[in-house]
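Lecture 7 notes: from sequence to structure.

We start with a single chain of 214 residues. Read the sequence below before looking at the structure.
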Amino acid sequence: MTDTKQVEEKVTIKGWIALIVLCLMFSGVFKDFDGPLKALDFLNLSGAFGKIGETSHTFIGSGGAGAKEGFVQALSLIPSVAFAVAMIDVVTELGAMKAAVKLFNPILKPMLGIPGECGISFVATFTSSDVGSVMTKEMYDKEEITDKQRSIFAAYQYAGSAVILNTINTQAALLPIVVLAIGPIIVLLFLCKVFGANLVRFVLTLKEKKAGGK
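Now the structure, written as C-alpha cells:
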C-alpha cells in the first residue's frame, strides 16, 4: 500500500513544467511583454471585449445600477473564469497539482495553515480575485480543504484582492498620497493579508479548542 501511494504521488517532469508555466501565467510576469512571451500571461490570453461603435464602452456600458448591472458584471467574468478552470483541468492531468503539493506545502502550511493544493490558487490571487475564489470553491467541493482552511484562505484573498494587479492599476490614484514606491506597497499589502488570515486562523483555532473542551 505504501509503495503504491508513493508511486501515485511521484511528480513527473511534465508535472513540474506544467506547474511552472501556470504559475508564470497567473503571476503577471509577462503582462507587459511584447512578442510571443506576451501569450504566456493569463490576462492577455483572456483578452478584452470590443468597443461599441465610436464610444469607449463595451457591452457592459456605463451608469448601470441594481440587479441588472450586477448581472452584466457577473456575465463579463464568465470567459476568464471558464478559461482558468479549463487550464487548471489540463495542467491537473499533466500532474501539476502533485507538484504544487510538494512545492507549496512547506510554504503555505506554516504561513497560513493551508495545504499545498492551494498553491496554484495562491499564485492566481496575486492578479485575479475571481479565478482564486472559483478555484478555492472547487477545492472545498472536492474535499481537498476543510471548512476552516477555506475560511482562512478566503480571509487572505478578500483583503487587498488581486494585490499586484489592482495596486499597479490604481497607482495613478495612489501616487499623490503615498511616499513609498509600488514594490514596497505590494509587499506591505501582502504582509497585511497574511496577518489578517492568521488572525482568522487564530480565532477559528481558539473556537475549536473551546468547543473541544465542552
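The first helix runs from residue 2 to 8. Keep this in mind for problem set 3.
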